[in-house]
TrEMBL record:
This is TIGR03085 family metal-binding protein. InterPro entries: CHP03085, DinB/YfiT-like, Maleyloyr_isom, MDMPI_metal-binding. Pfam families: MDMPI_N. It comes from Sphaerisporangium rhizosphaerae. Residues 3-48 form the Mycothiol-dependent maleylpyruvate isomerase metal-binding domain. It comes from the Bacteria.
Amino acid sequence: MTHARAERAALCDLLDHLGPNAPTLCAGWATADLAAHLVLRERRIDAAGGIVLKPLAGYTARVQEGVKSGRSYPELVDAVRQGPPPWSPYGFLPGVDALVNTLELLVHHEDVRRAQPGWEPRELPADLTETVWKRVSSGARMMLRRSPVGVVLRLPDGRKAGGKKAEPHVIVTGEPVELLLFAFGRQEHARVAYEGDQPSIDRLRQAHLGV
């Protein structure tokens, strides 16, 4: 089983357990909204553009609401669990699901987990952790392009990745998954440490990050 499939299964088990109205880290979304987002992303490619393009966001939101209201919650979660259909770009070509969905599902799994009381970081397989670091380090400049200050990402073992070249800069240290969540804009729920002057740290923690 690929890590994308394992994260998908674990996320769906958690969605089933929590029900449709549990909170998530995605502003304004309960678990039913997050499930509808994933269904839209994989099954309504025509409406997925608004996920990243603001001019299309209104249309995407309307379609997502229709996806949510047009299925029962168990049907939504089941559609997520089934994964991308064969005609979807994510399901048509071998390897695309793992390439595109591993981080997406990992982040959304944590969006649900970390919105619940008493959460703690998970211990992930070593190869998944290394994959996360490679993706974060290669994509850091894009994910952190809107940072108001310079950013350097650092692992506890000392490895670094440049996020944005600017001064003053802040060094953000954490495990790969914590840096991933930070770079995806979940700063307040990522267990990372900051080094830099306090005003720069404060600006970075409040910035809108991510793709």
